[in-house]
Amino acid sequence: QEEPELVSAIYGRGIAYGKKGLHDMKNAELALFELSRVISLEPDHPEVFEQRAEILSPLGRISEALSDLTKAIQLQPSARLYRHRGTLYFISEDYATAHEDFQHSLELNKNQPIAMLYKGLTFFHRGLLKEAIESFKEALKQKADFIDAYKSLGQAYRELGNFDAATESFQKALLLNQNHVQTLQLKGMMLYHHGSLDEALKNFKRCLQLEPYNEVCQYMKGLSHVAMGQFYEGIKAQTKVMLNDPLPGQKASPEYLKVKYLREYSRYLHAHLDTPLTEYNVDTDLPGNFKDHWAKNLPFLIENYEEQPGLQPHIKDVLFQNFESYRPDVQELICVADHLGSMMQYETPGFLPNKRIHRAMGLATLEVMQAVQRTWANSKVRMNGKTRLMQWRDMFDIAVKWRRIADPDQPVLWLDQMPARSLSRGFNNHINLIRGQVINMRYLEYFEKILHFIKDRILVYHGANNPKGLLEVREALEKVHKVEDLLPIMKFNSKTRDGFTVNTKVPSLKDQGKEYDGFTITITGDKVGNILFSVETQTTEERTQLYHAEIDALYKDLTAKGKILILSAELGEVDAVCNLILSLVYYFYNLMPLSRGSSVIAYSVIMGALMASGKEVSGKIPKGKASIRIHRLSLVDFEAMTAPGSEAFSKIARSWMNLKSLSPSYKSLPSVSETFPTLRTMIEVLNTDSSHCLKKTIVIV
After folding, report:
1. Quick one: pLDDT at residue 418?
2. What is the pLDDT of residue 23?
3. In whole angstroms, what is the distance from residue 690 CA to residue 680 CA?
4. Mean pLDDT by 10 residues, the chain (701 residues)
5. Residue at which a domain ends, from 300, 318, 336
6. If you compute the radius of gyration of the chain from its CA atoms, what whole number of angstroms results?
7. Which of 518, 537, 556 represents a domain boundary (last residue)?
8. How many CB atoms lie within 10 A of CB 107?
9. How far, in Å, CA of 469 to CA of 461, rounded?
10. Sign of the C-alpha dihedral, residues 637, 641, 642, 644?
11. CATH of the domain at 551
């Protein structure tokens, strides 16, 4: 045994080295050496283990730091030690274990706003937003001027889709510190996704005054300018992000990866501001490899890529249009569009209402209605530089055009127009429902439905491959209520031990008895906390052709029936047309033929085509209900993907659409495609402020 004085001298040296600077690796190593000597001499002092953990964790040696803290806790548990260990678990994304540590810490000392904030964040990252909000509020009770808690509270409300509450929380954070860059950035992002671009811009500019190299604010500033048609400013900001090359070995930021695509696309849009929309097509104009890399979010490394020409000075930026400067019938058109767009809002946690997208998709719905009516009356439409009778893809292209311009950040591209080799490999639309401990809030409603479906498939599988064990499997399945309950069942069969995939089937209407591949559900993992539960659709050329044949046949049928309907308004005909529209869109949803935005695009086509047939959707997309027995549709695409067939989908959809006869005043609205014939006129109408709409009673509603 060395003398205690000596030990404390070594300990003092260790701490001194530690304090001198963890930045200096040599000091850190010396400190670790001295502290390890102390531990070998006197292994029962918790504070030495804690000291060593504090040096280990900044060095990235998290698991060693964790075991030191665990030793310290065994020797003498304290609120501080639990909080310290919880923070390390949190950094390691083990949110469930971190939550337990923060809980223990708070039991030992309840007045700890930081531990309370972290406890809230462990909920937030697992998709448990209501619980997170409780904890953040609790932290604010303990510390009224806690900026980070207001910021996190704002984020949680934003994720819930509650714009007003989120705004209030961000405001409170900024009242405490008007220069809080993170809050400015988050508030700007939220305003952008709410469709308030000029408000968003103010936040990004403020953020850049304080932090000129903030990539997120710089990228979002460029994006907001471009979306509003201010291309000169927009491209200037984008170029600044491009100059921010990552250092060798450093991971490029998402903004850096996206900005080159956005800049090229912005130049393309600017060059086409005044070209009639009927004379060109984005999908055929943009180079194949460019589209492929953009949609897959790959680094911009495209061989022999020819840049889009720079901005031409004779094409001026888009100017702000006053709502009053539009003719009264156009004002009416805009107000009706706003109303129709708001009918598409999902009343589900996780969807923030975006008034810009509402207006764009409302105008798309009206334009689809007008184009379908023309087609049924045998008139031609002009699209892609040709005058012809409208095909089903043209009908969807109307909605694609509006969805694209509402948010130029997202590549809304037809997957079958991608280069052949990109398709032959298959293009995946992928949604994670659970990744590790992170649950996707938006689709929570559907877990039971998908689970039910998986259970059926497992029984079918074992019935065919394992008839002897069927009873055992059936009994085990009766105990399955959550996704993780499936893990033990995977062990029943060596093939599924590490995970399994289940494919949904989509029955053909054209060839009775034939089935197509719908989407794939994958579950992998061996214990709670590292499960991956995801769904994806694989767009291959062959699958696309099968679906196209189905949609072609339905569209042909729809056009024929629509022509009869226009001549005689018999009720039976309206019904048949309505079912054809819903069936056609059922196949579109299961095909998922676009890189983004399939859902809202399909929904505006449903609404517009139904309106052409004289029916108006008067029910909003319903809030998810707790009971799984009442089939409800809170996410139209998921409902179509989990419906057993097109008839079932039509039935579900009609049950909540609450179709009414269309008000005759729709007939008198001006033509959308003639009123907004260019990108410039489309951007102008999306920018204009229509708060007067609420004051004027909309005749149609």
Report:
1. 87
2. 56
3. 18
4. 57 60 67 78 80 83 88 91 94 91 95 96 90 96 96 93 94 96 96 95 97 95 97 95 82 89 96 94 92 88 89 94 94 94 71 89 96 92 86 95 94 88 61 69 68 79 76 80 73 65 85 87 72 77 90 94 82 84 92 85 93 85 39 57 84 83 91 97 94 59 42
5. 318
6. 29
7. 537
8. 10
9. 11
10. positive
11. 1.10.3290.20
The CATH number of whichever domain residue 292 belongs to comes to 1.25.40
Q: 517 by DSSP, 3-state: which?
A: strand
Q: Is 104 inside any structural domain?
A: no
Q: How far apart are CA 698 and CA 691, in angstroms?
A: 13
- Residues 571, 668, single domain; the answer is yes
Instruction: Please say whether the beta carbons of 561 and 573 come within 8 A.
Output: yes
- Counting every residue written for the chain, the total comes to 701
Contact 267, 306 (CB under 8 A): no
Q: Are strands 615-617 and 532-539 parallel, antiparallel or unpaired?
A: unpaired
The pTM (predicted TM-score) of the whole model is 0.86
Which residues are bridge partners to 520 per DSSP?
A: 503, 536
Helix/strand/coil percentages in the chain, nearest 5? 65, 5, 30
Q: Which residues constitute the domain of residue 295?
A: 198-244+251-318
Which H or E run includes 119? helix 113-124
Contact 165, 157 (CB under 8 A): yes
Query: How far is residue 537 CA from its own chain's centroid?
Result: 16
330 by Cβ neighbours in 10 Å (0-12 / 13-18 / 19+) ranks as middle
255 in Cβ contact with 218 (< 8 Å): yes
- Which two tokens mark 437? 């401990």
Return the closest-CA partner of residue 431 out of 532, 292, 541. Answer: 532
C-alpha neighbours within 13 Å on the C-beta side of residue 681: 16
For residue 463, the model assigns a pLDDT of: 76
**Dist. CA 382–CA 364, nearest whole Å:** 16
Residue keyed to tokens 């949110």: 95
CA distance 352 to 680: 27
- Distance from C-alpha of 283 to C-alpha of 267, rounded to nearest angstrom: 15
**Beta-strand runs (E) in 145-240:** none
Residues 402 and 449 occupy one common structural domain? no
Backbone angles phi, psi at 431, to 5 degrees: -125, 120
The two beta strands, 427-435 and 532-539, are antiparallel
Q: What pLDDT does residue 625 have?
A: 36
Residues 6+ apart with CB under 8 A from 531: 434, 436, 483, 484, 487, 523, 524, 525
Looking at residue 15, its pLDDT comes to 61
User: Is 58 part of a structural domain of the chain?
Assistant: no
Q: Are residues 532 and 550 in the same domain?
A: no
- Write the DSSP symbol of residue 627: -
**Are 547 and 533 within one domain?**
no
Quick one: 533 and 546 in the same domain? no
Same domain, 584 and 466: no
pLDDT of residue 28: 76
Residue 508 counted as domain residue: yes
How far does Cα 698 stand from its chain's mean position?
32
Strand partners, 387: 382
Other beta carbons less than 10 A from residue 444's beta carbon: 17
pLDDT at 440: 65
d(CA 217, CA 670): 39
Q: Work out how many domains the chain is built from and give that number.
A: 3
Model pLDDT, residue 631: 29
What are the distances in angstroms from CA 471 to CA 291, 457, 466? 51, 15, 10
pLDDT of residue 429: 66
**DSSP reduced 3-state for 518:** strand
Q: CA torsion sign, 73 to 78 to 82 to 84?
A: negative
Q: How far apart are CA 596 and CA 403, in angstroms?
A: 10
Cα three-residue angle 599-605-609, rounded to 5 degrees: 155
405 domain residue, yes or no: yes
Residue 425 confidence (pLDDT):
59
Does 342 lie in the same domain as 277?
no
565 and 661 share a domain? yes
